[in-house]
Amino acid sequence: MRAVVLREHGGLDRLVYEPNYRDPVCGADGVVIRTRACALNYHDVFTRRGMPGIRLTLPLIVGNDAAGEVLRTGANVTDFKPGDRVLIDPTNRVDAGFLGETMDGGLGEFVCVPAHMLIALDAAIDFASAAALPVAYGTAHRMMIERGRIQPGETVLILGASGGVGTGCVQLAKKAGATVVVCASTDEKLARLKQCGADIGINYATQDWMAECHRLFGRATTRGGPSGGLDMVVNFTGGDTWTRALRVLRRDGRMLTCGATAGFDPKEDIRYIWTFELNIIGSNGWSRADILALLAMVKAGSLRPILHQTRYGLADGREAMRQIEDRLTFGKVIVEPFR
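Below the sequence we write its predicted structure tokens.
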């Protein structure tokens, strides 16, 4: 089969398009999927580079999110049959594996997973929209709804809003009835984020976003009466945004984090945390229930995943990854192996 293969960690050149890679072989509990859509994530970039303390077995086909059709099933599989439309939950919740990291992922024509990782996909949902959901939208759903418990009328700032998780957070926050403030690096991205539901856009390349938040929403206070500032900040970038984000929260405000694309060990100033009684809320991944809730929204038409304008084939897998790494994307990057 054709696949995009990682044989050693490093730069983009370590991702190699191979037109005659081995076909997947499954055991009695496995299912071979014909991959119709694979959505890339920044996690794929980390996997390619190599992550400290995590050893992976190479060669490896990357790609965490995939949807497609059942090609064949193992002898013990009774819940699925050839031709069924399916979405893969990337987390192997039985054997503690992860698609595109500890097992071959979606950047190949075919992929094999245990049957328990599959979710039946309604015919009303296209493969690209389904593939966009688990890692990015699942992470956003768990962070905003389950952990952050966003409420109608609250104000929320979303940093890194133009990527997959970010656009998911924007849509879910707006759906919950919040006032949504976003930061992005270009006016074009801000305009598209407003089309997704953002109320206020701040171009961090031309404006001091912290000062702009203070101007719009005031500052936190320890005195009696209302406290200025935002109710919630979504910060999965880390790096030098961390302490600045603490400074735009109101008293008893919430900082949500699910990652650190700009650095996991930022300089900290815990004075803001105790002085204004701030809440730091971590969120790790997603549950099967998060994916099912999102699929129901997409089927009902109340949520439409934001997809990057350009679709890629397997031969363009390296370019698709570059788009993510260089932060040139808006929404989810989709690779269609049979394109």
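The chain has two domains: 3-132+306-335, 137-282.
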